[in-house]
């Protein structure tokens, strides 16, 4: 008998018919001899609705009270799913985060899980129940309701799987797994059978929304067997997130391509080339809470240099204001901006053991006449900043060049 934690996202429980569909799926797993713990999100759109409601009442809602409001979405779905299960003859019992006791710190709207009391859940399972737990929420040491950040139900699922030492944590969503890239841009994109935790973390931080980043970190740390699957398909193995050592030798060099259209570049021209300049430019930017992504400093010529960095497009105007304010003090000549940048990243643990991955990427882009403006790398990732109008072309040619079009 296996113990499985299944998490169903907002679209999977988006209306009564879909909730009944989830109930049938869960019942099937239990009938096959498994113990099943289910974590659910709020019905799709509900969390957004609740946040908007709070903002209509107060300009800056108190975080403690905001958590009281937004956590209710999940409370509705746990009750409804239990009713649907009972309606088809399955014993089921619901718990809010506070009832399980999923203990978190007190960082409202982005709390971290500290401890889970798994004993009551185990007892219910042993008595033949399906246990349904509200995702996204917990309770702090003072008994205040907390939430775990947007997409946090994934983390609830993984944390419960770790606490219960579950055999597998299955994340059911509206896609049937993790893809080599976005199929809307590259129709040849393929579903991956496996991907490593590290690759998944890179993809998540590059903007893939399949899993909340924190849930991937958690699963890696506690070695939870994590799988992403579609809640709308009867069959399918989804994508299994694995640890690197378990990968077979034939693993491709590159596993996936991520991209982001939403970048902008700032260049500070003619800054004196002396110690402290990077700090004087980026310090005020950080103080303004603007996240900086790629950074380049040119070689100096006649004692001055150019300094470029990228920010999210929506932050460009704010960043320019910050720089205009410090420009004179730094002794910079001028600031130029480019609002229409995009970032393309190739990700793969195979890069560690293969030389020439970067040059292959650069050659592929050069052959299409695509100019690379900035480059940044990690051990398993190479990102380039290019003009946005070339983004889709870049993703398509790279997908082909690295053999992602054909099954491994
Ligand atoms: N309902 C929450 C959200 O929309 C949590 C989740 O769905 O994972 O972010
Ligand atoms: Mg989600």
Automatic annotation (TrEMBL):
InterPro entries per UniProt: AceGlu_kinase-like_sf, ACT-like_dom_sf, ACT_Aspartokinase, ACT_dom, AKii-LysC-BS, Asp/Glu/Uridylate_kinase, Asp_kin_monofn, Asp_kinase
CDD domains associated with the record: AAK_AKii-LysC-BS, ACT_AK-LysC-DapG-like_2, ACT_AKii-LysC-BS-like_1
Matching PROSITE patterns: ACT, ASPARTOKINASE
One example GO MF annotation: aspartate kinase activity
Keywords, alphabetical: Amino-acid biosynthesis, ATP-binding, Kinase, Lysine biosynthesis, Nucleotide-binding, Transferase
Pathway stated in the Swiss-Prot or TrEMBL entry: Amino-acid biosynthesis; L-lysine biosynthesis via DAP pathway; (S)-tetrahydrodipicolinate from L-aspartate: step 1/4; Amino-acid biosynthesis; L-methionine biosynthesis via de novo pathway; L-homoserine from L-aspartate: step 1/3; Amino-acid biosynthesis; L-threonine biosynthesis; L-threonine from L-aspartate: step 1/5
Domain ACT: 266-349
Source domain of life: Bacteria
EC number: 2.7.2.4
Keyword Nucleotide-binding found: yes
Swiss-Prot/TrEMBL catalytic activity: L-aspartate + ATP = 4-phospho-L-aspartate + ADP
Family per similarity comment: Belongs to the aspartokinase family.
NCBIfam families, sorted: asp_kin_monofn (TIGR00656), asp_kinases (TIGR00657), PRK06635.1-2 (NF005154), PRK06635.1-4 (NF005155)
UniProt-recorded name of the protein: Aspartokinase
Phylogenetic placement of the source organism: Bacteria, Pseudomonadati, Pseudomonadota, Betaproteobacteria, Rhodocyclales
